[in-house]
Amino acid sequence: MYQYVGKYRSILIRLRHGSRKKGKVLLACSGGPSSISLVDLTKNIMHTLPNEKKKIQVVPEAVICHIDESSLFDSMSGSAETLRARMKEHYPNFEFICHPIEDVFSPQFVKNVNFDKYLSSEGTENGDYEHWAKYAYKTSSVNHKEQLQSLFNSIKKSTAKEDLLWHIKMQMLITVAQREGCTYIFFADSATRQAIKMISWTAKGRGYSLPLDISVDNEQTFGVGIMRPMKDMLSKEVGLYNYFSGIDKLVIPPYNFGTMMPAKSSIDRLTEDFINGLERDFPSTVSTVCRTVGKLTPSKDMDYKQTCAMCLMPRQTGIGEWRKHITVTEVPGADTKPSNDGCCGNNQSCSTTNGCKDNKVDINQHLCYSCQVNFKDYNATTIQLLPPYVVENTQEQSRNERLLNEIKDFLINDDE
Question: Would the pTM count as exceeding 0.90?
């Protein structure tokens, strides 16, 4: 017990030394075993006895944030109210914030509260390397819960569902942290979870941003620091700590798209089954993978300002061309006529501009490779129902790129 708490405290002291920002911390709490343990550990290190005045105060203030997913999973109905009551009873000094996940469609989770556009799919060109869409204004209000359910029902593959759900929760947590004035978000990713994420996210094509996705301390991406102070705790240790601390009764059984599903239902579920199976026979599996995680560093030429509109992580340029080289596609016949470069055929002098594409946006140009792969599983309904933050990010990035192209001839390069 003391070793477990001491390990958590030593990680925080090591991560938050020197010039690192100090201030309020947002504790991401799903109600599962790891997040309950995270809340309890944070409470313990914040409590200072009279004879411990010299103890370093690594977390001066904390707030708990829970994203209620009951709109997607009926078995989670009422779980948010239950968790709120348990947190208020056992951790009264922590403010508890809860947002239904459908709130991602509300104005409080976009930069401009008056933003009311959505993307209307115009189909793909050049195989599936270009997915064109146009902006349209919402003409009527839709129930956010129904919109969320329709969004996920329109996606067929579990992997794409799981990824989109994670991106939405990440966006909401970051927005809440910024609104509450938090300098850090603490995630309760254990060593076991870190090992699973490393393998599964690499398989899904997130290698470019992987060092940031699973890093113990990431202050470079979101304007809010991301910490994973439980990165040295195995899931077994978490369970034992919860049991002997008497907080296992606070745990709300987690439920997601992979719960009670076969191992091959998604990449995440398959990787989880693979890592847990290896760990049973070879107990050093997780620690070996986690040591590899600790050695990963971001690319030196990574542009942190060029981010994916969906997952918000840095993305590479020229992904479309790279995909063409690694993807087997059907070669069109020699007698196939070239397209009209996006012309609508309505005799509106499209040839004098850039075709009808002047009013469209290639969504793939604003997505990282992993999100582009998932985007192939989206249909027109899915695209139309995407959360407003994705549409807003896409519009902002396309506008900035268009302005940059207009003035690039007048810019002075660093070499000049």
Answer: no
